[in-house]
Amino acid sequence: MNKYIERIYNGVFKENPTFIMMLGMCPTLAVTTSGNNGLYMGLTTTVVLTAANLLISALRKAIPDKVRIPAYIVVVASLVTIVQLLLGAYVPVVNELLGIYIPLIVVNCIILGRAEAYAAKNSVGLSFFDGIGMGLGFTVALTIIGSVRELLGAGTIFSYKITPSSFEPISIFILAPGAFFVLALLTAVQNKLKLPSATNGSGEKAGLACGGDCSHCGGSTCTTNRDKIDATKPEIGKNKN
Amino acid sequence: MKELLIILIGAALVNNVVLSQFLGLCPFLGVSKKTGTAAGMGAAVVFVITIASALCSLVYNFILVPMELKYLNTIVFILLIACLVQFVELVLKKYSRALYSALGVYLPLITTNCAVLGVAIINVQSDYSLLTSVVNGFGTAAGFTIAIIIMAGIRERIEFNDVPKSFQGSPIVLITAGLMAIAFIGFSGLF
Fold first, then answer.
1. DSSP-H helix ranges across chain B
2. Which of A29, A211, B56, B167 has the largest CB neighbor count within 10 A?
3. ipTM
4. pLDDT means per 10 residues in chain A (241 residues)?
5. Are A150 and A35 in contact (CB under 8 A)?
6. Could you tell me the end-to-end alpha-carbon distance of chain B, in angstroms, rounded to an integer?
7. Helices in chain A by DSSP H: which ranges?
8. For chain A, what is the radius of gyration of the CA atoms?
9. Contacts of B31 (CB under 8 A, 6+ apart)
10. Are A75 and A52 in contact (CB under 8 A)?
């Protein structure tokens, strides 16, 4: 398979950021009250992720290793600001729907995760397609979760009424607790079928410095693993020579 | 005074940061295995969010607004928070050993906690003054602490329960969170 197409396949299916790597759970739970919201959030994140991957990959030789995380954060924050201003100017509806979750894309761990795990090591072209692939994977996942919640909670999909009038919508599913229940059922099904996923500990870790295991992490594994990786770097260098 | 109280309770219980706004989920799910560590994380979050709200509010009202650079708030806030966490860690290490050993391990985790940036942005979007920002920040962080400690207490008991095999691990934790969220919806009738 063409290596660029492979990146997209990888992002949507093999290493889907939501279903398999369980990254970026805050926006996943918060904005998926309807299929539309999930779609908008996914597309916005895709734009930021692709541009961030592109820029970080282009700058990967210019950014000193010690300050790379702050540098990435500045790049991502600038891109998010640009996207937020563009949305406010051209599609204010989306800007109002997603509200505070647009600026919070900065701290979405998918973006820093991909920058660290992929864009910092690979060519501009590959990083660009990796961004599109991961972004599409995120969009698909959010749209599916959003549609399921919308169907159960309001009886509609993309605002079209499709259930018979005898169906009484279970409105808890579009409220906050519904998000937790839907995700709980999803992970339970993954556990039952032993599907690859970060939550049942058998998923592909994708060479992420943090291991991609968000549900058990809390943030510390990132730094400890980084130290381990840094410690092994000189040895690898020696072997090469 | 009454207004401040409403903001405080609203931020802590009615719009609970984890259970109704889904901010700071990673530490909520990740560091809630034991009540002790959960309380430590909660204390560190209260500490950082309160200071960060004050700092971001000051910078926004006295630097960004006069210079008409409001649109830069996301970039400025995230950098301020990252620097603040590093700074707090250094200061605690030097001057307060006891506090550092209690909170130190949790501090690096907080930079990536979206609740901190979330509160700073909510403060700005709601046009809060310095005082109301600090109160809102403190209330939000208190809400986080309440939620994470309750969660840890429940999880300690779940350990001894007979959970169906496919629900062991994160699914049962998420269901617990969902039930807590239902309970917290009850607070929305408070005002």
1. 2-9, 25-30, 35-59, 73-95, 97-103, 107-110, 114-125, 130-158, 170-185
2. B56
3. 0.86
4. 86 86 83 91 95 94 87 92 94 90 88 88 93 94 92 87 84 89 89 73 45 50 60 59 48
5. yes
6. 16
7. 3-9, 25-31, 35-58, 68-90, 92-98, 109-114, 124-154, 176-193, 220-240
8. 19
9. A218, B37, B38, B41, B106, B109, B148
10. yes
pLDDT at residue B43 greater than cutoff 70: yes
- As a whole number, mean pLDDT of residues B166-180 equals 89
Contact criterion met (CB < 8 Å) for A181 and B105 = no
Q: Does A163 touch chain B (CB under 8 A)?
A: no
Amino acid of residue A19:
F
- Does pLDDT of B34 surpass 80? yes
**A window 38-67, beta carbon within 8 A of B:** none
**Pick from A29, A84, A184: CB nearest B175:** A184
CB contact under 8 A, B121 and A104: yes
Looking at beta carbons, which residues of chain B come within 8 Å of A30? 21-23
State the residue for tokens 């979405």. A108
Closest CB from B20, B74, B110 relative to A103? B74
First to last CA, chain A: 33
- Please name the residue of chain A whose CA is at the shortest distance from the CA of residue B109: A219
pTM over 0.90: no
Which CB contacts under 8 angstroms, 24+ apart, belong to A163-169? none
Q: Please say whether the beta carbons of B31 and A217 come within 8 A.
A: no
Give exposure, B45-66, as e/b (b: 16+ Cβ within 10 Å). Answer: bbbbbbbbbbbbbebbbeebee
Structure tokens at A231: 């410690």
d(CA B90, CA B85): 9
Domain ranges of chain A: 3-192, 205-235
Q: Which of B159, B137, B148 minimizes the C-alpha distance to B19? A: B148
The Cβ of residue B133 has, within 10 Å, a number of other Cβ atoms equal to 28
A 67-86 residues with CB < 8 A to B: 70, 73-74, 77-78, 80-81, 84-85
**Secondary element (H or E) of residue A160:** strand A160-161
Q: Residue B29 and residue A78: Cβ atoms within 8 Å? A: no
Q: What are the tokens at A39?
A: 């779609």
Length of chain A: 241
